[in-house]
């Protein structure tokens, strides 16, 4: 629990960083506004004493003119201070969103462990907004405190007893409000957790909508989301009840406090201890105090929700990396030799593999789990339990993860496309701005896709590339990987959604384009495997054979079953 509080405070401190100027402006202007608001009843009391009780008409007119000027200044001051406070809140939320995005995309990974994409989106939007809103709440709390202090000073000047009532009662009221906010904080955390989970489930279902329809699982999906949504609604209603209870209790306590101030002031006026104008000032201040005290209720509720959201943001920002970042970059030029020695990673056990620099290697895994584990090890999604992986003789852990992934690009077959033009998708990973992507489009047969689109490569495609067929989407994703032109390129089933003629063309194109660059294709495509210099057969987590495709077809029943059946 102590670590959570420290992390939560660090998130709140991070939100304040960079916003001090706007917060200072908002605090100063807002405090001046509240002080002016508190002095309005005093001015009214003076006008009554001099202009009404003493019959001074000139004084009355001057007093009314001063009040008009004060109200005009208060109107402009409030707007200026509120604008600075809102600017600080929005900028802080934006900074947190940027930090969260950077952490999720950080090369060491680990931030998304145990979280659905929709849940991370909810944290980066709603939770960041709530923490940013805490800055405005703090500013408003400072305004309210200023109003209370000025009111207490004025009341002390009018009557020592009235001033003491405010000075003693206000801290007690604030303490009660803080205690009443504790249930809201806990329920707000549960509310955000449930809402984030519901968002994650919704995004997950939408992403898999075609699959769900294909297998007729829509009713089960609807039931799943209905259950999740109801749980989220229950948590939201619970938080709303807690907030309503807190607001009601604080409002009741505030009412009792204001009534006490008015009662004391009335008794003093009845005894003649204060003038009629001072009584009006005291009554006006008592009514004015409702505003600052009500603001404290709002501030407590906002801070309670912000603390819960800050803890959720901290869970992402402070998440341990999936790998330990190294500090070195691969030696230039990268030759592209990859070695796996005694590797234990997922289903791989004692795995040994040599990928010579510049070689075109095919890998066939009889168990899909072995293929996934090998891709994970080469992408360094996490470090292996035992053994090592090396690039040009340098162990992966000694290399900077970002530099390693620039040198060893692992392109999964289910890679998504982004909303935007086809050209922008292919050029997304191009190392040099303005580089020609034509060879990559031709090698992947994606140039055929370009010719079928109404605006060619400048045609807009939808999120995830859903406006394209599966085969078109796969070819564009392959073109993107080829256009990146890394020293080592690892492809996973890049042609399993295309016809055999296109498959053969892609095999020829990829081999020609990648000549002299290390290329690994994890696949069961006969056309791609026939184009490879050598093929590695993986069974039960280990390499069992290495030979050209034609030789393995003749000598290995397991290979024939995996590739030709």
UniProtKB/TrEMBL annotation:
What one GO molecular function would you report for this record?
ABC-type oligopeptide transporter activity
The protein's matches in InterPro entries, at most eight in alphabetical order, are given as: ABC1_TM_dom, ABC1_TM_sf, ABC_transporter-like_ATP-bd, ABC_transporter-like_CS, P-loop_NTPase, Type_1_exporter
Which UniProt keywords are given for this protein, alphabetically ordered? ATP-binding, Membrane, Nucleotide-binding, Transmembrane, Transmembrane helix
Q: Name one GO cellular component term.
A: plasma membrane
PROSITE patterns, per database record: ABC_TM1F, ABC_TRANSPORTER_1, ABC_TRANSPORTER_2
Main subcellular location of this protein, as a coarse class:
membrane
Cell location: Cell membrane
**Short name of one Pfam family for this protein?**
ABC_tran
Q: Membrane topology for this entry?
A: Multi-pass membrane protein
UniProt protein name = ABC transporter ATP-binding protein
Q: Which organism is it from?
A: Streptomyces tsukubensis (strain DSM 42081 / NBRC 108919 / NRRL 18488 / 9993)
